[in-house]
User: Which sequence fits this backbone?
């Protein structure tokens, strides 16, 4: 057999060379000098070069009148992704890995004869015994069929004889060992709610590794299917979920003058007898997802992921301890309701729920410097007028800001706050101190409401202020008049102090020896 760089197809004149052969109508094959010969069949030849290395030649023409067997170099390289090289006396074919596949020497016919024995009946028998795709699938530890096929076709491994002609069957052992959950369709099943509170999705998200500073370990996320408006309710225990949902439903029904038509949740903490009786008394349906298939309640699961992603990003930007995670969950929910969503065609959930466009004029950068005004009467005039904090969120029921004070680890809620955002300073603010590695809850007992300090209780001055005098302060005449107390002037106080000193000196024991 000869390697020919000028031939466009493989040619054989011996029917015994073929592993498979099918007849075709006579086809003319042009040669040198305008001569032509007839091909009467096409098939496959399997070359066994050495033990363990097999090469399959496809679409080989059977031409009984041909004088030689030819291997087309171009067809070989295209089919097996190999590289052919020639010099004055030798030629060789290599895989892309560098392994030599074929070699030949130049003959007197000016053709390169293939080194090694020609194909025989024994070689054809060996070709029938090639390991198939299923065998290599098992040899490679039940690897994916596509991975085995790609490895065999790419030539990225040597010593891998394989028969790719048969379609492999399904592997029972792979199903038993690798089976996972069936993917839930991403397309929505069922109709969307046509009114507010028509369908309400509810689910709990747990934070088992960190109890918040206010004693919360869970967050109940609720989303309205019609408007995509969401609520996040921090909880201290799972048992608080049902009472919190009852309070939420009462508030929303009073707000919208509509009743909840259907609740959709998983088979968790809301699947109770008390919940069933309450819904039955209100005529409300309750749909559950399949067991261990929370993806069927995809609306609220995606809400979990969105809120947690935003909360982590904001907490990282603020440098706040991890035990304040519930603050940022509420902030993320507040801001998500004022952000356009695809399901509402570019409108915000706030607009779809309230019918009004959201006003974003009060928003500031989460994590920016916030200076909270000290308004109580215990702040002396020589001290600074405000306390430096960090903005971490917004009050849900009024236009107030929630600011975190690093030194006291308290959250101040105030309207009188001045901000310095990133675009208002020439250099970025200095990063805050890193949070401690381990944090313990501030409140060991359950406490659902978030901890907050009113503005009137802000008495801590900056740490760099001078120390106050240790002398007792005396009320002024005006203060005594307002309080209904007698006023003592400074002269009278001096006289009284002198008399008190003289009396103490008289009462001292004598230090002179007796005579």
Assistant:
């Amino acid at each position: 057999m000869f390697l020919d760089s000028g031939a466009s197809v493989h040619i054989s004149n011996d029917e015994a060379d073929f592993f498979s052969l099918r007849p075709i109508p006579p086809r003319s094959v042009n040669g040198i000098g305008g001569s032509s010969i007839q091909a009467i069949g096409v098939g496959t030849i399997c070359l066994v070069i050495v033990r363990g290395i097999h090469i399959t030649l496809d679409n080989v023409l059977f031409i009984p009148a041909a004088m030689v067997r030819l291997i087309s170099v171009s067809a070989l390289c295209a089919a097996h992704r190999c590289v052919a090289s020639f010099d004055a006396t030798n030629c060789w074919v290599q895989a892309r890995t560098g392994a030599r596949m074929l070699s030949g020497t130049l003959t007197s016919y000016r053709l390169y004869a293939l080194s090694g024995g020609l194909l025989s009946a024994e070689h054809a028998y060996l070709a029938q015994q090639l390991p198939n795709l299923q065998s290599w699938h098992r040899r490679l530890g039940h690897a994916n069929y596509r991975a085995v096929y790609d490895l065999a076709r790419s030539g990225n491994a040597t010593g891998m004889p394989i028969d790719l002609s048969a379609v492999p069957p399904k592997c029972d052992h792979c199903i038993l060992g690798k089976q996972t959950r069936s993917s839930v369709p991403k397309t929505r099943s069922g109709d969307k709610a046509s009114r507010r509170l028509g369908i309400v999705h509810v689910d709990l998200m747990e934070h088992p590794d960190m109890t918040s500073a206010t004693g919360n370990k869970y967050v109940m996320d609720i989303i309205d299917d019609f408007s995509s408006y969401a609520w996040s309710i921090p909880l201290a225990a799972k048992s608080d979920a049902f009472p919190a949902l009852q309070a939420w439903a009462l508030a929303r029904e009073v707000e919208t003058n509509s009743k909840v038509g259907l609740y959709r949740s998983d088979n968790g903490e809301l699947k109770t007898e008390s919940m069933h009786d309450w819904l039955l008394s209100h005529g409300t349906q309750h749909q559950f997802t399949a067991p261990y298939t929370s993806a069927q309640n995809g609306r609220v699961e995606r809400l979990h992921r969105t809120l947690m992603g935003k909360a982590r990003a904001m907490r990282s930007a603020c440098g706040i301890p991890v035990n304040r995670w519930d603050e940022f969950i509420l902030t993320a929910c507040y801001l998500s309701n004022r952000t356009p969503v695809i399901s509402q065609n570019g409108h915000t959930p706030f607009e779809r729920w309230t019918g009004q466009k959201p006003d974003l004029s009060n928003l500031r950068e989460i994590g920016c410097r916030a200076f909270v005004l000290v308004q109580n009467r215990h702040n002396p005039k020589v001290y600074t007028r405000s306390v430096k904090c960090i903005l971490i969120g917004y009050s849900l029921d009024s236009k107030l800001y929630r600011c975190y004070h690093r030194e006291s680890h308290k959250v101040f809620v105030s309207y009188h706050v001045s901000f310095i955002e990133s675009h208002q300073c020439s250099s970025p603010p200095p990063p805050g101190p890193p949070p401690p590695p381990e944090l313990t809850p501030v409140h060991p007992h359950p406490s659902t409401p978030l901890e907050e300090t009113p503005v009137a209780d802000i008495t801590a001055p900056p740490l760099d202020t001078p120390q106050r005098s240790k002398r007792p302060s005396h009320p002024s005449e005006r203060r005594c008049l307002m309080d209904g107390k007698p006023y003592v002037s400074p002269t009278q106080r001096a006289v009284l102090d002198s008399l008190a000193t003289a009396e103490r000196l008289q009462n001292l024991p004598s230090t002179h020896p007796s005579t």
Q: What stands out?
A: The chain has four domains: 2-128, 133-178, 200-354, 369-457. Residues 474 and 488 are 9 Å apart (CA to CA). The two ends are 146 Å apart (CA to CA). The chain has a mean pLDDT of 78.
